[in-house]
Amino acid sequence: MPTFTRRRFVQAVLAASGTAVGAGAPAVLAEGAPRHGGAGPVIDCHAHLHHHGEPDWKEKDRRLIEAADKLGIDQLCCSILTPKRPASAEGFRECNAWAAEATRRFPGRVLAYCYVNPGHGREALDEIRRGVLDRGFVGVKLYNEHRCTEPVVFPVVELSIELRVPILHHAGHSHYFVADQPRMSDGGHLAELAARYPEARLICAHVGGGGDWEWTIKALRHARNVYLDTSGSVIDEGIVDLAARVVGVDRLLFGCDMSMTAGVGKIRAADLSPADKQKILGLNMQKLLAWRA
Question: How far, in whole angstroms, is CA 59 from its chain's centroid?
């Protein structure tokens, strides 16, 4: 008789609620069915690996994958950020080299975003091409170096359209001025960018990352090429439910942004059908990743 481990318990509980659960390192799920044989994959669209300047980066990365195992997350779409921003070209190139190494260290589990600072112009564009074309990165990660409506960002968006990869953009509608993020974008800025580039695929990061999440959701109501990721440490009741009503479940992407149990819990707690939850948990991101193919 097999041992009833903690992982088996989590699998049984999530399966009972209609939530698919991962089991070990899957194949690249954007190209096929999940190895666990459930209704669909579970893909964390917003994760981070650790900067190698941290002495315990390797252990922290290992614990991240371990947490994903326990929570039934098949794949994590990860970036590595420089500790201080704005990032230098040397800094983001170093981070992306480490991210590429992580995709080999955790094959089939870690997918990588190419992190750049658009302010570096040609160097940023060359790095995106290297990441997507040579390293198999699945998208672009932009932080707060520039607001997304600044012209310096436009060449990055145009290249993402050419390469057919999404952009995950840091965002938030804060209740106060964030002194260390004076160029932070919000849902309104992303809606403006989406209208300028309707061919682009944009992901508004961590709708539950702090600030006025209700405003963010409503600001993106009509921006049909902007997806909302559900990540963030804010666990207010109703975030996912409101987003589903306002923008629709087809534009919601499951994410944790390192708040792992909270990320899963928000989807579990949402008053949605199992089929709709499965779209959010992975099927929507799977379709988005298939855009390049």
Answer: 22
